[in-house]
Amino acid sequence: MALESSRSAFERTRRSVGGGVGSGLRAAMPPHPLFVREARGAHVWDLDGDRYVDYVMAWGPLVLGHGDPRVVSAVTEVAKKMQVVGTGHALEYLAAEAVLDAVPHGERLLWSNTGTEAVQVALRLARAATGRRRVLKFAKSYHGWHDTVYAGMSEDDCDRPATPGGQGQSASVLDDLVVARFNDVRLAERLLSEAVERDIAAVLVDPVMSNAGVEAPSPQFLSTLRTLCDRHGVVLVFDEVIAGFRIARGGAAEKYGVLPDLSVFGKAMAGGFTQSAVVGRAELVDQVTAGVVHAGTFNANPVALAAVEATMRVLADPAVYEVLEATSSEFEALVGGVLGSFPGLGRFHRVGSLLQYVPAGGATGLHGTGGLWTVILEGMLRQGFLFMPSGKVFLSTAHTTADIEATAEALDRLLRKS
Predict the structure, then answer these.
(1) pLDDT tens sequence across 25-34
(2) Residues taking part in catalysis
(3) pTM of the full predicted structure?
(4) Which of 8, 79, 92, 332 has the maximal Cβ count within 10 Å?
(5) Element (H, E) at 225
(6) What is the pLDDT of residues 163-198, one digit of tens each?
(7) Pairing of strands 134-138, 108-112
(8) Beta strand extents in 246-398 (DSSP E only)
């Protein structure tokens, strides 16, 4: 893989786009970000025409792979008729009905665009319903780049005043955050027992720590949060922007049997288009008719909702998740097996089709992962396999056994040389 055109494209882009990338984390890709000209199925082609097996999958949305014809066809038909309109249209309810049919606790929803936006909408609903202002989140969990939640990004931030996750953030809003530890039932019990005194309106939790090592919830953790929220009048919010519709059609509620009050969905729900939603109890969502402001010119964009409706129709087939599970299990066995044959190099954590490389020391991060991952990342790229700097791996129904076997063989070659 020459990568020369991508290097030139990156240098050119830096002259017009801050950081040279559309989203800051992409700049962490060594030796430089990849620029692609085409994407189909489980593959992308760079500007030099070289093909890569893609395990980035747009950072999670592409459960069905690039350019699924069922999604593309639906979008194409709508795009011919309208793009964005300032009125209602049938896809608003057709797509909503498809989502609500899948989600066990789905009574009503609100359309939004990105996960960051939808999280803020969910927290606004929780504050309005409870009359409280604070949010309990969990250390290392990422809930978007907004000042109010991009904090507590270190394991050491538990049970102490939250600190900003980056420069330029308003420190004044961080008094609204209380930071606990994922899977720490005792700490959650103590903090939520003081919910009234601490003014806690919501618990905001990624039911799978998708951006912090793909850590699954312990058997009692989510059910304990549900019990505590009921007991202390707190709204339980699942951030399922990454895991939702990827780990199960009904999201975490289906997989773990715990119903939150609200869930935030994004990424996989729209098959590669920009869309998010807040889904949950009608009495919470319907507060938008009684003073809670929810707005956005591009909310319920018909093109994006065509993608949602088509994607949800495909995901209603149980065979989709059977294929995803089989493919992901095969990746874990073959590629993870190669990794495991070299002692001390770490392993993959997996929940469904969401995986994460975790080094022997256990240090993973949103911006990059420790251990040998940087070497693996660049070495695999040069052999035609695209992974993410954070170490997350996204599988799709478009990945084949041949793709995975080739990946395992390439990793074996790389590690034997390292």
Answers:
(1) 788 888 888 9
(2) 142, 239, 267
(3) 0.95
(4) 332
(5) helix 221-232
(6) 888 889 888 888 899 999 999 999 999 999 999 999
(7) unpaired
(8) 262-265, 276-280, 347-351, 354-358, 385-386, 392-394
